[in-house]
Structures are given as C-alpha cells and as structure tokens.
Write a structure and sequence with these properties.
- The chain is an alpha+beta fold.
- The chain has 7 helices and 8 strands, in the order H-H-H-H-E-H-E-E-E-E-E-E-H-H-E.
- Strands 3-2-7-1-8 form a 5-stranded antiparallel beta sheet.
- A hairpin with a 2-residue loop joins strand 2 and strand 3.
- The termini are far apart.
C-alpha cells in the first residue's frame, strides 16, 4: 500500500513519530554541546576576577563588623580608651628611658672596670720591673768596665750604679745579677761581690733608660769614667735601641708587714 492510500489517522501518527524522533535528536545535541564543558581563556579570567572581587567584599564586610563595636561606642567610652592608650604609651616610654639609662650605666661601668684592670696590669708590670721579678727591654746603654790591674773597687761600681739611677735608669743588670732597690756592692779589687754574689771583670752593666741622658751622666768631668780610668781601667759605653734585662729576682713575701687595704 502506498502513502497515498494511507488513511488520514495513519498519516498523522506517522508525522508524530517523525516529530518525536527529531525532538530527541535535538536534546541529545544540546547535551553533547554542554558536556564536557569547554572553558575558554576569557571565561577563566572572568571567573578569577569575580572570585577576587567576592573575596575583597567578604573581607570588607568582616572589617566593618570588627569596627562596629567602636562605631557604636559612646563618646565617654572612646575617651576612656584613648586615655588608656596614652597611659600605656607613656609607661612604655618611661620603661624605654629606664632601660636606656641602665644600659648606659652598664657600659660606663664596664669601661671603668676595663680601664681599672688595664691600670692594675700596667702598675703590676712597673712594680715587677722595679722589684726585678719580671724581664724588661727597651732602649738604653751597655757600660763595660775592663779591669786588668784589679784596681776597680766595689765603691766605684756603686758610684756608677748611683749615677745611672740619677740619670733615669729604669732597669739594670750587672754580670747577670738583677739590680733592685737594696742592691749593694762589696769587696776589693779583683774580689767584688754584688748582693753577696761574686762577679769578675769585665763588669758589664745592661741599662734600660734614655740613652741621651745615661751616657752624658757617665762622661761628666770628674765623673764615673774618669774615676775608673785613673785606676787603669778601660770603659766603653754603647747606646742601643733595645737592651734586654732578663735576670730575675724571686718575689719575696714580707715576714711581718701586711696590706692595710680591705
């Protein structure tokens, strides 16, 4: 049977069937166009900007909520809060000034303690040089007395020592014996002792001091050099930039004297 021979009801049914097929096909095409989603670069940028804008609005709303308590506070409360802040700031400033003053005091105390320590060490060194308990070196002279005829007596060597001390000698050593405040000479020519230790010619004085003062003091008219030369001794004085005096005396503790300082 051809289409022309179909009754009217059959034709309508066939048209509805064809229409349903066309409608289903369109829905499928719509779903296929939406999934999987295809996001373009422009859409992604817009989404990010919207997210950032939303986040900013949320933070602003929260900030407004936090400050709402101060906005709604009375004038008296605001004045009280400001006064408390001023008091706290003043206390912190006072504490800062106190700590600064304490730091300055500690620095000054430390500097003073360090300076006192340095002075103590220097004073101890000076006293050690004078007492003969520490070695010393510095500019000075070497006085050498040769006595081939044994005419040099103890008092002549003592005069030479006193002349050197008067000229500013700071440390002296004679034939390996350290000269200190109570040093003495004894004996006759050829049998001279210094602090009860026998020494023999040549008598060598190692002297630390200002050479320009020490040498002229020995060579004054009628002085040490001329006196020794009268006894047929030969005297030689040499200046040096560095004289070493390293003969030491043992530190002696006093038997009775005690320090009166606390």
């Amino acid at each position: 049977m051809s289409n022309e021979e179909l009754p009217d009801g059959a034709e309508q049914a066939g048209e509805r069937t064809a229409g349903s097929a066309k409608e289903l096909t369109g829905r499928q095409r719509l779903i296929a166009g939406l999934w999987p989603p295809r996001v373009t670069r422009a859409q992604l940028i817009v989404a990010v900007l919207l997210f950032v804008l939303g986040l900013g609005l949320a933070i602003q709303v929260r900030s407004n909520s936090d400050n709402s308590a101060l906005r709604g506070a009375r004038q008296e409360d605001l004045v009280r809060i400001l006064d408390e802040l001023d008091d706290r700031t003043q206390r912190l400033e006072d504490e800062k000034q106190r700590l600064d003053a304490q730091r300055t005091e500690l620095e000054n105390s430390s500097d003073q303690a360090e300076e006192a320590r340095k002075q103590t060490v220097e004073k101890e060194r000076q006293l050690g040089v004078l007492a003969g308990t520490v070695a010393a070196h510095g500019p000075g002279i070497t006085l050498t007395v040769n006595d081939p005829g044994d005419g040099v007596k103890a008092d002549m060597l003592l005069d030479a020592l006193q002349e050197l001390r008067a000229a500013g000698a700071e440390a002296i050593e004679v034939n390996g014996v350290r000269v200190v405040a109570n040093t003495y000479f004894s004996g006759d020519g050829g049998n001279v002792k210094v602090d009860d230790r026998k020494i023999t010619a040549p008598y060598v004085f190692e002297v630390i001091g200002k050479p320009q003062d020490l040498e002229p003091a020995l060579n004054i008219p009628g002085g040490v050099v001329q006196t020794l030369e009268k006894e047929q001794a030969t005297v030689q004085v040499e200046q040096a930039d560095d004289i070493v005096v390293d003969a030491l005396r043992p530190a002696k503790q006093p038997d009775y004297a005690r320090s009166s300082s606390p």
